[in-house]
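Moderator note: this is an archived Q&A kept for reference. The question asked for a predicted structure of one protein chain; the sequence and the answer are reproduced below.
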Amino acid sequence: MSRNTKINALLLLVVAALAVLPLALGLGDHKEEPFAGADAEAETAISELQPDYEPWFSPLYEPPSGEIESALFALQAALGAGVLAYYFGLRRGRRQGAARAETAGPADTDADADADASTAVPTASATADHAGGSGGGSVGGPGA
């Protein structure tokens, strides 16, 4: 087992423990909403410390229920994870492509250049030379 595999397995185990241990140990059983978010905890603390507190502004959109709010949060998290996965995948692909180009060596690049030259579109000067033109290389050919 490689070192990276061991590290990944250990990190996966730690994440699973962070998700399962609070549930298994019964943390938060004494609360009305045991796993409420930090926003709800802060709102409760503020209302206990200063009951006459008035918020400076209100949210732009207030979801009609907690389930919809959770779904929107999950959607936001999924989109963020998708963007990060795309970015890191793109970087890894570029790194692998650069490594392949380095290992290909100059012999393979010469063969690629010969193949490209045989399939390339003729330039204007080559067309003028073969068409019986003046050979001056004008773009329009003879009489241009």
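Archived answer notes: DSSP finds four helices and no strands in the chain.
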